Amino acid sequence: MKTADFDYALPEALIARHPLAERTASRLLHLDGPGQAFQDRMFAELPEFFRPGDLLVFNDTRVIKARLFGEKATGGRIEALIERVLTEHEAIAFIRASHGPKPGMRLRLAEAFEAEVIERSDDLYRLRFDPAKTVLEWLETYGELPLPPYLERKPEQADEARYQTVYAREPGAVAAPTAGLHFDEAMLAKLKAKGVATAYVTLHVGAGTFQPVRVDSLAEHKMHAELYEVPPATVAAVELARGHGGRITAVGTTSLRALESAARGGTLVAGQGETDLFITPGYQFRVVERLITNFHLPRSTLLMLVCAFGGMDLMLAAYRHAVEQRYRFFSYGDAMLIERA
């Protein structure tokens, strides 16, 4: 398949650059893969699509303040985006500079501390931070929330809470699992009261989620690997739900990728590791039957994933409908509930 097969025209005015006043105030496009239909709803109506015994699986990763500004020892300005925290004092990062720093060079970050470039691998740099604090402590004090580049603005005070799910607890992501941003405590309580079970996985979303697909053929694209964990309690929750006829709903493409990565051997098993799972049309899903997700960038790996899940023709038709009906797109935008084709 070709990258160009996953394109669509999006007016810039439909990019949601700020969150709505209420998390659950978004619109919801329900896409019925088996029935080859879609309908306009509201996210507040989500509990109507669930029945007792169903299972919702959330990604509990927490966004870290991963963007740092500084300068090289030579005085050149740099911007570093932490891709992954490796240890208490080391991380790998994308670095934007007029000339990339070389191994051994020291970087002065936030006018407060230094980090040494240990090595470079393609477009990623391994950095060793000043050991006076851990990487996460330096970031929390001096880092900036890494809003997606298409928002075209600096983080504001409201983003500190709103670009984070209400159930975030495991720090490590450099982008929010945005489908979860629509849930508030009241919505979670309504679903629980209806008999809907919940479980959690962790997938630390990397900066690679914003990297464009630069090849014409999907077969040539290489995904950035991301860390994930599926705990035994979540495997047990999936088995329990299935045993009672419950449906497995992933909240976000990250939850889906974690579950499907843990089921690559044919059955879902607990564990942790790295995943570079690239889901495209033709993929055989083993765990997830329903998906809650936002609207994704044209030609992106996430659009390819949802096309694989809901059916390519129907999904692209739904996207055209969403544009016509002026849905809000991307991280702070509206949501979809997709029944697997």
Provide a descriptive summary of the structure in words.
- It is a single chain.
- This protein is α/β, with parallel strands linked by helices and 341 residues long.
- The protein has 2 domains: 3-63 and 159-339, QueA-like (3-Layer(aba) Sandwich), CATH 3.40.1780; 67-144, Thrombin, subunit H, CATH 2.40.10.
- The protein contains 7 helices and 17 strands.
- The protein has a 9-stranded mixed sheet with strand order 2-1-17-16-14-3-12-13-15, with helices on one face.
- It is globular, with a radius of gyration of 20 Å.
- It starts with 26 loop residues before the first strand and ends with a strand.
- The relative contact order is 0.21.
Detail the topology: elements first, then pairings.
Elements: E1 27-32, E2 37-42, E3 55-59, E4 61-63, E5 67-72, E6 77-85, E7 90-97, E8 106-109, E9 113-121, E10 124-129, H1 135-142, H2 159-162, E11 170-173, H3 185-193, E12 197-203, E13 226-230, H4 232-243, E14 248-251, H5 253-261, E15 271-275, E16 290-294, H6 301-310, H7 312-324, E17 335-339
Helix pairs in contact: 6-7
Give the C-alpha Rg: 20 Å
CATH architecture of the largest domain: 3-Layer(aba) Sandwich
Oligomer description: single chain
Number of domains: 2
User: Runs with pLDDT <50, length 5+?
Assistant: none
Strand fraction band? 25-35%
Structural class: alpha/beta
Helix content: 10-25%
CATH-level-4 superfamily name of the largest domain: QueA-like
Strand order of the largest sheet: 2-1-17-16-14-3-12-13-15
* SSE succession: EEEEEEEEEEHHEHEEHEHEEHHE
CATH top level of the largest domain? Alpha Beta
Which fold name fills CATH's third level, the topology of the largest domain? QueA-like
- Overall 3D form: globular
Largest sheet: 9 strands, mixed
Query: Average pLDDT, to the nearest integer?
Result: 96
* Beta strand count: 17
Distance between the termini: 19 Å
